[in-house]
Amino acid sequence: MLKIILDTNIIVSLFIKRSETAKTVFAALKNNSFQLVISEAILKETLEVLSRPRIRQLTKMSKKEIRQLGLLLLENALKVKPLIKIEMCRDHFDDKFLECAVAAKADYLVSGDKDLLVLKSFRGTAIIRLAEFIGILADQ
């Protein structure tokens, strides 16, 4: 099974847009088409961003729904604890995704962040856009 890390910007955009793309990703996750991988730092950032008033307004998620999402992620995602500190990205807040990728030996890191995408891959993990990930899911 593919091990996938979703950047915070991807998770948030899936909840904001609620598009066919979002439905495809959530259905694939529910059907175990891939294993979502998270670290404590990624989970913390994701929940913090989703809790921002402006983002909550866009997602139409209540505080309770955000807490439930956190629990759902904890129960269903593969949780890893990175053992090495990586300082690779211009924006040091992005390093947590690379650390998680290395710890999990992830297949893909799905991101919309140019600082990550420019790397193309990192220690065996391909760094791809959401559209590429949707194509991979379609090929399975």
Mind explaining what this structure looks like?
This protein has 140 residues and is α/β, with parallel strands linked by helices. It has a single domain, classed as 5'-nuclease (Rossmann fold). The chain is 56% helix and 16% strand. The protein has 8 helices and 6 strands, in the order E-H-H-E-H-H-H-E-H-E-H-E-E-H. Strands 3-2-1-4-6-5 form a 6-stranded mixed beta sheet, with helices on both faces. Strand 5 and strand 6 form a beta hairpin. The N and C termini lie close together (10 Å). The model has no long low-confidence stretch (mean pLDDT 94).
Summary, kept brief:
The protein has 140 residues and is α/β, with parallel strands linked by helices. Helices cover 56% and strands 16% of the residues. It is globular, with a radius of gyration of 14 Å.
